[in-house]
Design brief:
The protein is mainly beta and 414 residues long. It has helices at residues 3-13, 311-314; strands spanning 26-39, 51-67, 70-83, 109-111, 121-136, 139-146, 178-187, 191-198, 209-218, 221-230, 233-244, 247-257, 270-280, 285-294, 324-335, 338-347, 352-364, 367-377, 382-385, 391-394, 404-413. The chain has a single domain, classed as Porin, CATH 2.40.160.10. Residues 86-98 have low confidence and may be disordered.
Protein backbone atom coordinates (compact mmCIF):
# COMPACT_ATOMS: atom_id res chain seq x y z
CA UNK A 1 0.00 0.00 0.00
CA UNK A 2 1.41 3.39 -0.99
CA UNK A 3 3.14 5.26 1.84
CA UNK A 4 1.70 8.50 0.44
CA UNK A 5 -1.83 7.11 0.79
CA UNK A 6 -1.02 5.95 4.33
CA UNK A 7 0.20 9.41 5.41
CA UNK A 8 -2.77 11.10 3.74
CA UNK A 9 -5.18 8.71 5.45
CA UNK A 10 -3.68 9.24 8.91
CA UNK A 11 -3.76 13.01 8.36
CA UNK A 12 -7.49 12.92 7.62
CA UNK A 13 -8.21 10.41 10.39
CA UNK A 14 -6.74 12.54 13.15
CA UNK A 15 -7.60 15.93 11.70
CA UNK A 16 -9.81 17.98 14.04
CA UNK A 17 -13.47 18.34 13.11
CA UNK A 18 -13.88 19.13 9.44
CA UNK A 19 -17.52 20.05 9.92
CA UNK A 20 -19.65 21.28 12.80
CA UNK A 21 -21.48 17.95 12.97
CA UNK A 22 -18.38 15.75 12.92
CA UNK A 23 -17.22 13.94 16.03
CA UNK A 24 -13.66 13.36 17.15
CA UNK A 25 -12.06 10.09 16.03
CA UNK A 26 -12.79 7.16 18.32
CA UNK A 27 -9.76 5.31 19.66
CA UNK A 28 -10.01 1.87 21.26
CA UNK A 29 -8.10 -1.37 21.31
CA UNK A 30 -7.08 -4.44 23.24
CA UNK A 31 -4.12 -6.20 24.77
CA UNK A 32 -3.82 -9.98 24.53
CA UNK A 33 -1.25 -12.30 26.02
CA UNK A 34 -0.97 -15.96 25.03
CA UNK A 35 1.22 -18.56 26.70
CA UNK A 36 1.44 -21.86 24.82
CA UNK A 37 3.06 -25.24 25.46
CA UNK A 38 3.54 -27.37 22.35
CA UNK A 39 4.06 -31.10 22.79
CA UNK A 40 5.22 -32.56 19.48
CA UNK A 41 4.67 -36.23 18.57
CA UNK A 42 7.50 -38.43 19.81
CA UNK A 43 9.43 -39.38 16.67
CA UNK A 44 12.68 -40.21 18.45
CA UNK A 45 14.24 -37.17 16.77
CA UNK A 46 16.75 -34.97 18.54
CA UNK A 47 15.70 -31.36 18.99
CA UNK A 48 12.00 -32.26 19.16
CA UNK A 49 11.15 -31.66 22.86
CA UNK A 50 8.20 -29.91 24.43
CA UNK A 51 8.38 -26.25 23.44
CA UNK A 52 6.82 -23.09 24.74
CA UNK A 53 5.99 -19.62 23.47
CA UNK A 54 4.67 -16.32 24.80
CA UNK A 55 2.95 -13.79 22.55
CA UNK A 56 1.91 -10.33 23.73
CA UNK A 57 -0.18 -8.37 21.27
CA UNK A 58 -1.34 -4.75 21.41
CA UNK A 59 -4.01 -3.64 18.95
CA UNK A 60 -5.06 -0.03 18.45
CA UNK A 61 -8.13 0.87 16.42
CA UNK A 62 -9.56 4.19 15.33
CA UNK A 63 -12.57 5.22 13.28
CA UNK A 64 -13.72 8.62 12.13
CA UNK A 65 -16.80 9.99 10.38
CA UNK A 66 -15.92 13.54 9.29
CA UNK A 67 -18.99 13.68 7.06
CA UNK A 68 -22.19 11.67 6.82
CA UNK A 69 -20.96 10.24 3.53
CA UNK A 70 -17.44 9.27 4.67
CA UNK A 71 -16.29 6.64 7.20
CA UNK A 72 -12.58 6.02 7.90
CA UNK A 73 -11.05 3.07 9.73
CA UNK A 74 -7.53 2.28 10.94
CA UNK A 75 -6.09 -0.62 12.98
CA UNK A 76 -2.48 -1.43 13.86
CA UNK A 77 -1.06 -4.43 15.75
CA UNK A 78 2.23 -4.64 17.62
CA UNK A 79 3.32 -8.03 18.89
CA UNK A 80 6.17 -9.25 21.09
CA UNK A 81 6.91 -12.95 20.86
CA UNK A 82 9.22 -15.22 22.81
CA UNK A 83 9.56 -18.87 21.77
CA UNK A 84 11.89 -21.84 22.06
CA UNK A 85 12.62 -21.89 18.33
CA UNK A 86 14.07 -19.26 16.04
CA UNK A 87 11.84 -16.21 16.17
CA UNK A 88 11.46 -15.72 12.43
CA UNK A 89 7.73 -16.36 12.14
CA UNK A 90 5.18 -13.69 12.86
CA UNK A 91 2.36 -14.54 15.27
CA UNK A 92 0.08 -13.76 12.36
CA UNK A 93 1.60 -16.60 10.30
CA UNK A 94 -1.20 -18.97 11.31
CA UNK A 95 -3.45 -17.01 8.98
CA UNK A 96 -3.61 -18.95 5.76
CA UNK A 97 -3.74 -16.39 2.99
CA UNK A 98 -4.78 -13.03 4.37
CA UNK A 99 -1.41 -11.36 3.85
CA UNK A 100 -1.21 -12.84 0.35
CA UNK A 101 -3.95 -10.40 -0.63
CA UNK A 102 -2.06 -7.20 0.01
CA UNK A 103 -0.63 -4.94 -2.66
CA UNK A 104 2.25 -3.93 -0.42
CA UNK A 105 2.86 -4.02 3.29
CA UNK A 106 5.03 -2.87 6.14
CA UNK A 107 7.90 -5.14 7.08
CA UNK A 108 6.27 -7.62 9.45
CA UNK A 109 9.35 -8.15 11.61
CA UNK A 110 10.64 -5.02 13.34
CA UNK A 111 13.28 -6.71 15.49
CA UNK A 112 15.61 -8.38 14.85
CA UNK A 113 16.31 -7.04 11.40
CA UNK A 114 16.35 -9.30 8.38
CA UNK A 115 20.12 -9.61 8.61
CA UNK A 116 20.05 -10.69 12.25
CA UNK A 117 18.80 -13.93 13.74
CA UNK A 118 17.80 -13.94 17.38
CA UNK A 119 16.70 -17.40 18.38
CA UNK A 120 14.07 -16.60 20.99
CA UNK A 121 12.63 -13.11 20.59
CA UNK A 122 10.91 -11.07 17.90
CA UNK A 123 8.86 -7.88 17.55
CA UNK A 124 6.26 -7.80 14.78
CA UNK A 125 3.82 -5.32 13.34
CA UNK A 126 0.68 -5.57 11.25
CA UNK A 127 -1.18 -2.71 9.58
CA UNK A 128 -4.50 -4.55 9.61
CA UNK A 129 -7.08 -1.91 8.66
CA UNK A 130 -6.74 1.18 6.49
CA UNK A 131 -9.97 1.89 4.63
CA UNK A 132 -12.35 4.62 3.55
CA UNK A 133 -16.06 3.99 2.98
CA UNK A 134 -18.01 6.39 0.77
CA UNK A 135 -21.76 6.28 1.42
CA UNK A 136 -23.57 7.28 -1.73
CA UNK A 137 -27.36 7.06 -2.19
CA UNK A 138 -27.30 3.71 -4.01
CA UNK A 139 -24.33 1.90 -2.41
CA UNK A 140 -21.44 1.84 0.04
CA UNK A 141 -18.03 1.94 -1.64
CA UNK A 142 -15.06 0.83 0.48
CA UNK A 143 -11.45 1.10 -0.66
CA UNK A 144 -8.33 0.08 1.24
CA UNK A 145 -7.42 -2.60 3.76
CA UNK A 146 -10.58 -4.21 5.12
CA UNK A 147 -12.26 -7.52 5.95
CA UNK A 148 -13.65 -9.61 3.10
CA UNK A 149 -15.19 -12.81 4.48
CA UNK A 150 -18.33 -14.91 4.06
CA UNK A 151 -19.88 -18.14 5.22
CA UNK A 152 -22.42 -19.27 7.79
CA UNK A 153 -20.95 -22.63 8.88
CA UNK A 154 -19.80 -22.72 12.50
CA UNK A 155 -16.37 -24.34 12.03
CA UNK A 156 -15.39 -24.92 8.37
CA UNK A 157 -16.38 -22.29 5.79
CA UNK A 158 -15.88 -23.57 2.22
CA UNK A 159 -16.58 -20.14 0.67
CA UNK A 160 -14.26 -18.22 2.99
CA UNK A 161 -10.94 -18.50 1.18
CA UNK A 162 -9.71 -14.90 1.25
CA UNK A 163 -8.57 -14.75 4.88
CA UNK A 164 -9.80 -17.78 6.82
CA UNK A 165 -8.68 -19.05 10.18
CA UNK A 166 -7.47 -22.58 10.71
CA UNK A 167 -9.44 -24.62 13.23
CA UNK A 168 -6.60 -24.37 15.78
CA UNK A 169 -6.02 -20.61 15.64
CA UNK A 170 -5.79 -19.14 19.12
CA UNK A 171 -7.12 -15.67 18.29
CA UNK A 172 -10.16 -15.63 15.99
CA UNK A 173 -11.90 -12.43 17.04
CA UNK A 174 -10.98 -10.36 14.00
CA UNK A 175 -10.10 -11.59 10.55
CA UNK A 176 -6.99 -10.16 8.88
CA UNK A 177 -7.45 -7.23 6.55
CA UNK A 178 -6.90 -7.47 2.81
CA UNK A 179 -6.54 -4.77 0.16
CA UNK A 180 -9.78 -4.46 -1.77
CA UNK A 181 -12.22 -2.27 -3.62
CA UNK A 182 -15.72 -3.28 -2.56
CA UNK A 183 -19.19 -2.12 -3.58
CA UNK A 184 -22.25 -3.03 -1.50
CA UNK A 185 -25.74 -2.42 -2.93
CA UNK A 186 -28.88 -2.96 -0.81
CA UNK A 187 -31.60 -4.85 -2.71
CA UNK A 188 -35.11 -5.73 -1.60
CA UNK A 189 -35.87 -6.74 1.99
CA UNK A 190 -32.68 -7.59 3.90
CA UNK A 191 -30.90 -8.36 0.63
CA UNK A 192 -27.65 -7.06 -0.79
CA UNK A 193 -25.40 -7.31 -3.82
CA UNK A 194 -21.72 -7.36 -2.96
CA UNK A 195 -19.01 -7.13 -5.61
CA UNK A 196 -15.40 -6.11 -5.85
CA UNK A 197 -11.78 -6.90 -6.41
CA UNK A 198 -9.28 -8.14 -3.81
CA UNK A 199 -5.75 -7.23 -4.77
CA UNK A 200 -2.76 -9.53 -4.62
CA UNK A 201 0.88 -8.57 -4.37
CA UNK A 202 1.63 -5.45 -6.44
CA UNK A 203 -1.94 -5.73 -7.81
CA UNK A 204 -0.76 -8.12 -10.52
CA UNK A 205 -3.73 -9.33 -12.55
CA UNK A 206 -3.18 -13.06 -12.05
CA UNK A 207 -2.84 -12.57 -8.26
CA UNK A 208 -6.04 -10.57 -7.83
CA UNK A 209 -9.46 -11.97 -6.94
CA UNK A 210 -12.74 -10.84 -8.49
CA UNK A 211 -16.06 -11.72 -6.89
CA UNK A 212 -19.79 -11.09 -7.03
CA UNK A 213 -22.12 -12.19 -4.23
CA UNK A 214 -25.85 -11.86 -3.86
CA UNK A 215 -27.63 -12.30 -0.53
CA UNK A 216 -31.40 -12.73 -0.33
CA UNK A 217 -34.07 -13.33 2.32
CA UNK A 218 -36.66 -15.74 0.89
CA UNK A 219 -39.31 -17.76 2.77
CA UNK A 220 -37.72 -16.86 6.12
CA UNK A 221 -34.37 -18.19 4.90
CA UNK A 222 -31.05 -16.47 4.25
CA UNK A 223 -29.68 -17.52 0.86
CA UNK A 224 -26.52 -16.29 -0.85
CA UNK A 225 -24.83 -17.09 -4.16
CA UNK A 226 -21.16 -16.40 -4.86
CA UNK A 227 -18.99 -16.44 -7.96
CA UNK A 228 -15.27 -15.79 -7.57
CA UNK A 229 -12.23 -15.81 -9.82
CA UNK A 230 -9.16 -16.36 -7.62
CA UNK A 231 -5.60 -17.34 -8.47
CA UNK A 232 -6.74 -18.59 -11.91
CA UNK A 233 -9.47 -20.72 -10.31
CA UNK A 234 -13.24 -20.28 -10.45
CA UNK A 235 -15.38 -20.79 -7.34
CA UNK A 236 -19.17 -21.15 -7.25
CA UNK A 237 -20.55 -20.85 -3.72
CA UNK A 238 -23.90 -21.35 -2.04
CA UNK A 239 -25.07 -20.56 1.51
CA UNK A 240 -28.37 -21.39 3.18
CA UNK A 241 -29.51 -20.75 6.76
CA UNK A 242 -32.85 -20.75 8.56
CA UNK A 243 -34.55 -21.63 11.81
CA UNK A 244 -36.98 -24.50 12.20
CA UNK A 245 -38.85 -24.59 15.51
CA UNK A 246 -36.15 -23.68 18.03
CA UNK A 247 -33.19 -25.11 16.11
CA UNK A 248 -30.96 -23.44 13.56
CA UNK A 249 -29.86 -25.10 10.32
CA UNK A 250 -27.21 -24.15 7.80
CA UNK A 251 -25.37 -25.45 4.78
CA UNK A 252 -22.46 -23.91 2.93
CA UNK A 253 -20.83 -25.27 -0.20
CA UNK A 254 -18.24 -24.33 -2.79
CA UNK A 255 -17.29 -25.97 -6.08
CA UNK A 256 -13.90 -24.93 -7.42
CA UNK A 257 -12.91 -25.31 -11.06
CA UNK A 258 -9.22 -25.56 -10.26
CA UNK A 259 -6.91 -24.00 -12.82
CA UNK A 260 -9.85 -23.22 -15.13
CA UNK A 261 -7.89 -20.38 -16.69
CA UNK A 262 -4.67 -22.39 -16.96
CA UNK A 263 -4.42 -24.93 -19.73
CA UNK A 264 -2.77 -27.68 -17.67
CA UNK A 265 -4.07 -31.10 -16.64
CA UNK A 266 -2.41 -31.17 -13.21
CA UNK A 267 -5.25 -29.18 -11.66
CA UNK A 268 -8.15 -31.06 -10.09
CA UNK A 269 -11.62 -29.66 -9.49
CA UNK A 270 -12.99 -30.17 -5.99
CA UNK A 271 -16.14 -29.69 -3.93
CA UNK A 272 -16.43 -28.68 -0.25
CA UNK A 273 -19.59 -28.85 1.76
CA UNK A 274 -20.58 -28.10 5.38
CA UNK A 275 -23.99 -28.78 6.88
CA UNK A 276 -25.08 -28.50 10.47
CA UNK A 277 -27.56 -27.56 13.14
CA UNK A 278 -27.48 -25.88 16.55
CA UNK A 279 -29.83 -25.92 19.51
CA UNK A 280 -29.97 -24.43 23.00
CA UNK A 281 -31.19 -27.07 25.46
CA UNK A 282 -31.38 -24.54 28.29
CA UNK A 283 -30.58 -20.88 28.79
CA UNK A 284 -27.05 -21.92 29.78
CA UNK A 285 -26.40 -24.77 27.33
CA UNK A 286 -25.73 -24.38 23.62
CA UNK A 287 -24.78 -27.20 21.24
CA UNK A 288 -24.10 -27.73 17.56
CA UNK A 289 -23.22 -30.52 15.17
CA UNK A 290 -21.53 -29.98 11.79
CA UNK A 291 -20.48 -32.35 9.04
CA UNK A 292 -17.85 -31.33 6.48
CA UNK A 293 -16.95 -33.03 3.22
CA UNK A 294 -13.62 -32.09 1.63
CA UNK A 295 -13.26 -33.60 -1.84
CA UNK A 296 -9.77 -32.11 -2.12
CA UNK A 297 -8.58 -34.50 0.58
CA UNK A 298 -7.99 -38.24 0.45
CA UNK A 299 -8.73 -41.23 2.68
CA UNK A 300 -5.22 -42.77 2.76
CA UNK A 301 -3.16 -41.24 5.61
CA UNK A 302 0.17 -42.32 4.10
CA UNK A 303 -0.49 -39.96 1.17
CA UNK A 304 -1.62 -36.95 3.23
CA UNK A 305 1.61 -35.01 2.82
CA UNK A 306 1.42 -35.34 -0.96
CA UNK A 307 -1.77 -33.26 -0.90
CA UNK A 308 -0.32 -29.98 0.32
CA UNK A 309 1.30 -29.19 -3.04
CA UNK A 310 -2.08 -29.19 -4.81
CA UNK A 311 -3.82 -25.97 -5.82
CA UNK A 312 -6.62 -26.56 -3.29
CA UNK A 313 -4.07 -26.13 -0.50
CA UNK A 314 -1.74 -23.56 -2.06
CA UNK A 315 -4.44 -21.33 -3.56
CA UNK A 316 -7.78 -22.37 -2.08
CA UNK A 317 -6.97 -22.19 1.65
CA UNK A 318 -7.95 -25.82 2.24
CA UNK A 319 -6.26 -27.18 5.37
CA UNK A 320 -7.98 -30.50 6.20
CA UNK A 321 -6.17 -33.50 4.71
CA UNK A 322 -8.97 -36.08 4.81
CA UNK A 323 -12.42 -36.06 3.25
CA UNK A 324 -15.06 -36.66 5.92
CA UNK A 325 -15.34 -34.79 9.23
CA UNK A 326 -17.86 -34.70 12.04
CA UNK A 327 -17.64 -31.76 14.43
CA UNK A 328 -19.82 -31.67 17.56
CA UNK A 329 -19.58 -28.88 20.11
CA UNK A 330 -21.21 -27.81 23.34
CA UNK A 331 -20.85 -24.78 25.59
CA UNK A 332 -22.17 -24.29 29.11
CA UNK A 333 -22.38 -21.11 31.15
CA UNK A 334 -21.27 -22.34 34.55
CA UNK A 335 -21.88 -18.96 36.20
CA UNK A 336 -22.58 -15.52 34.70
CA UNK A 337 -18.81 -14.99 34.66
CA UNK A 338 -17.54 -18.47 33.69
CA UNK A 339 -18.16 -20.19 30.37
CA UNK A 340 -16.92 -23.67 29.39
CA UNK A 341 -16.79 -25.15 25.88
CA UNK A 342 -15.85 -28.46 24.29
CA UNK A 343 -15.39 -29.20 20.59
CA UNK A 344 -14.35 -32.42 18.90
CA UNK A 345 -13.08 -32.63 15.32
CA UNK A 346 -13.29 -36.21 14.11
CA UNK A 347 -11.67 -37.39 10.88
CA UNK A 348 -14.03 -40.19 9.86
CA UNK A 349 -11.56 -41.48 7.27
CA UNK A 350 -8.70 -42.40 9.64
CA UNK A 351 -10.62 -42.30 12.96
CA UNK A 352 -8.43 -39.63 14.52
CA UNK A 353 -9.86 -36.79 16.61
CA UNK A 354 -8.81 -33.38 17.84
CA UNK A 355 -10.30 -32.40 21.19
CA UNK A 356 -10.66 -28.70 22.02
CA UNK A 357 -11.56 -27.96 25.68
CA UNK A 358 -11.86 -24.30 26.63
CA UNK A 359 -12.88 -22.37 29.74
CA UNK A 360 -13.10 -18.60 30.15
CA UNK A 361 -13.44 -16.40 33.24
CA UNK A 362 -14.66 -12.80 33.00
CA UNK A 363 -12.49 -11.39 35.79
CA UNK A 364 -13.86 -7.86 35.52
CA UNK A 365 -15.43 -5.58 32.95
CA UNK A 366 -13.55 -6.09 29.67
CA UNK A 367 -10.97 -8.42 31.29
CA UNK A 368 -10.90 -12.15 30.47
CA UNK A 369 -8.73 -15.08 31.46
CA UNK A 370 -8.98 -18.41 29.62
CA UNK A 371 -7.42 -21.86 29.46
CA UNK A 372 -7.64 -24.36 26.62
CA UNK A 373 -5.91 -26.88 24.45
CA UNK A 374 -5.87 -28.85 21.23
CA UNK A 375 -5.30 -32.53 21.96
CA UNK A 376 -4.83 -34.94 19.05
CA UNK A 377 -5.78 -38.62 19.36
CA UNK A 378 -4.89 -41.11 16.63
CA UNK A 379 -2.13 -43.24 15.20
CA UNK A 380 1.24 -41.53 15.52
CA UNK A 381 3.50 -40.95 12.48
CA UNK A 382 6.08 -43.50 11.38
CA UNK A 383 9.72 -42.53 11.13
CA UNK A 384 11.89 -44.29 8.60
CA UNK A 385 15.51 -43.81 7.61
CA UNK A 386 16.50 -43.31 3.99
CA UNK A 387 19.67 -44.14 2.09
CA UNK A 388 21.09 -40.68 2.81
CA UNK A 389 20.17 -40.90 6.49
CA UNK A 390 17.43 -38.31 6.06
CA UNK A 391 14.32 -38.99 8.19
CA UNK A 392 11.23 -39.92 6.22
CA UNK A 393 8.02 -39.17 8.14
CA UNK A 394 4.83 -41.01 7.13
CA UNK A 395 1.52 -39.96 8.64
CA UNK A 396 -0.76 -42.75 9.84
CA UNK A 397 -3.58 -40.40 10.84
CA UNK A 398 -4.22 -36.68 10.57
CA UNK A 399 -4.73 -35.53 14.14
CA UNK A 400 -2.40 -38.18 15.54
CA UNK A 401 0.41 -36.37 13.73
CA UNK A 402 -0.46 -32.95 15.16
CA UNK A 403 1.29 -31.59 18.25
CA UNK A 404 -0.75 -31.17 21.41
CA UNK A 405 -1.12 -27.50 22.28
CA UNK A 406 -2.04 -26.19 25.74
CA UNK A 407 -2.55 -22.47 26.17
CA UNK A 408 -3.67 -19.71 28.48
CA UNK A 409 -4.71 -16.24 27.47
CA UNK A 410 -5.28 -12.89 29.12
CA UNK A 411 -7.38 -10.30 27.27
CA UNK A 412 -7.98 -6.68 28.15
CA UNK A 413 -10.23 -4.37 26.10
CA UNK A 414 -10.22 -0.59 26.30
Amino acid sequence: MSKIFLLFFIFILFLPNLSLSAELPSIEGNYKSFFSIIDNPDLALKGNPVKGSVSNRLRLKSSYTPFDWLYLQLAYDLSFEVEDTTGTNSPFSNLLSGQRYRIDDLNSRIFPSRDDDYANFGIYQNLDRLSATFRVPFADITVGRQVVAWGNARVVNPTDIISPFTFDSLDTEERPGVDALRLLFPIGFMGELDGGIVFGKEAEFDKNTLYLRGKYYIFESDISLLIMDFQKNLLLGFNFARSIAEAGFWCESAYVFSGLFVNEEVYEDYFRFSIGSDYSFTENTYSFLEYHWNQAGINEPEDYLNQIAKAAYTDGSVYFLGQHYLIPGISYQVTPLINAELRILANLSDFSVLIYPFIEYNIATDIYLSLGGFIGIGKKPDLKSTTFNVPDIRLRSEFGGYPDVYFSSFRLYF
